[in-house]
Amino acid sequence: MITQEMLQKSDLFGDLKTFQWQELIKVTKENNYKEGDIVFNEGDASTELYMVLDGEVEITLKIAPQLADTTVYKVKPHDIFGEFAFVDPKPRSATARCSMKSTLAVITKDDFEELTKKFPRIGLNFYRSLVNLLSDRVRRMNSYLRDTFIRCSGLEI
Predict the structure, then answer these.
(1) What is the arithmetic mean of pLDDT over 75-79?
(2) Residue-wise over 117-146: b if at least 16 C-beta within 10 A, else e?
(3) Residue among 79, 112, 115, 75 nearest 96 (CA)
(4) Does the pLDDT at position 24 exceed 90?
(5) In terms of pLDDT, which residue wins out, 145 or 20?
(6) pTM of the predicted model, to two decimals?
(7) Residues 65 and 98 sit within 8 Å (Cβ to Cβ)
């Protein structure tokens, strides 16, 4: 069962009133996965946002058909994934696979939009936090790409 304390650990929703947390809990489902289970595949149509409550999820990309999937990110407890498809209707850009037994909180875009019509503060807090999270991820990716380029090019800085 999803609790307010579980959702508060993600920092995604900021400071809400108790009744707002209760409404958010109503649209949040709990799903359990075994090690190796696929949450979604690259290319899938989907609009769910996930938060790891317990366990770990690997986000992988298929770089080339002849290569194994490459892990680009490991999602640990209290972190989220699936945010791209939650924001826009495009197919999933990566695959999410549980690297161990995991419990995930799941919110669908439709349920969340209905909730934010009634409680705009929840949406405002969420989207502010999401922008900060995505900005941080882009900065980390930029650093990774810069370091990879330097390493591959043989440059010394």
Answers:
(1) 95
(2) eebeebbebbeebbeebeeeeeeeeeeeee
(3) 75
(4) yes
(5) 20
(6) 0.87
(7) no
Contact yes or no for 96/81 (Cβ under 8 A):
yes
User: Residue 107: what pLDDT?
Assistant: 97
108 contacts: CB under 8 Å, gap ≥ 6: 27, 47, 48, 49
Is-contact 74 99, C-beta < 8 A?
yes
Cα dihedral value 114, 120, 126, 131, nearest 10: 110
pLDDT digits (tens, 9 = 90+) for 32-71: 999 999 999 999 998 999 999 999 999 999 877 777 788 8
Which CATH number fits the domain 4-153, given the four candidates 3.30.450.40, 2.60.120.10, 3.40.50.300, 3.40.1440.10? 2.60.120.10
All structural domains of the chain with their residue ranges: 4-153
Q: Compute the distance between CA of residue 54 and CA of residue 32 in angstroms, rounded to an integer.
A: 9
| Pairing between β-strand 28-33 and β-strand 70-75 as defined by DSSP bridges | unpaired
- Distance CA(74)–CA(138), nearest Å, equals 15
Are the C-beta atoms of 47 and 86 separated by less than 8 Å?
A: yes
Q: What percent of the chain has pLDDT over 90?
A: 66
pLDDT of 156: 65
